Amino acid sequence: MVESNIFSEEALLIPEQMIKLYAMGAFPMAESSSGKIEWFFPEERTIIPLTDFRVPRSLKKILKEHQFNIKYDTDFLSVVRHCAARQETWISDNLITAYLNLQKLGHIHSIEVYQKEKLVGGLYGVTYRGAFFGESMFSIVSQASKVALAHLLHHLNEKKFVLLDVQYMTEHLKMFGAKEISFEKFSALLQKAYLVDAEF
Question: Using CA atoms, how far apart are residues 77 and 96, in angstroms rounded to an integer?
Fold first, then answer.
């Protein structure tokens, strides 16, 4: 965790400083009670290998049925607000403002899933060179967030990204081949990703 007595919360949310912290392998979370934002460096990190991921068989069927329309970077604010709309959330208003500032620099991206012109799922993350740092996803209808993740995986491959960081393991992510690795291995992957100048 970055020591808050060294840098103020506001200083750590300056876009250029945020990118430096992401590049080091940190990510921000706000306390659900106080809203205070801290930066974390877990000893283990979860990634989905872009050269060795899985798409669940049931999801492949849904993708073939074309039940959803997929868009990229058209409504980030709605996506992040849906992700934050939970009883307990680590996505505070201050963090959303910081994300919007990152978006101006081209480092925030979203995938939106629509059904009958209604936003029903999506995800967003931060990019730096060949790395995509997945932050959160949401789903209003069944399978919508999984559809977003499947499209993200294929999109990152097409755009020659090297790393997809998803922070912590969940059963949802495990279905796609997510793996927990040491922070040392994660740091090595970061360095490899930074040799690639990928465009989302």
Answer: 8
For the chain, how many helices (H) and strands (E)? 8, 9
The pTM score is: 0.93
* Distance, CA of 200 to CA of 195 (rounded, Å): 15
Backbone angles phi, psi at 87, to 5 degrees: -60, -45
Contact 83, 39 (CB under 8 A): no
Question: 165: which DSSP letter?
Answer: E
Sequential DSSP letters for 29-71: EE-TTT--EEEE--SEEEE--TTS----HHHHHHHHHT-SEEE
Strand stretches in 85-178, DSSP E: 108-115, 118-128, 131-139, 163-167
How does strand 179-182 pair with strand 163-167? unpaired
Read off the pLDDT of residues 69-128 as tens digits, 9 standing for 90 and up.
999 999 999 999 999 999 889 999 999 999 999 999 999 999 999 999 999 999 999 999
**Domain 9-193 adopts which CATH fold?**
Aminopeptidase (3.40.630)
- 37-40 and 27-30 strand pairing: antiparallel
Q: Counting every residue, how long is the chain?
A: 200
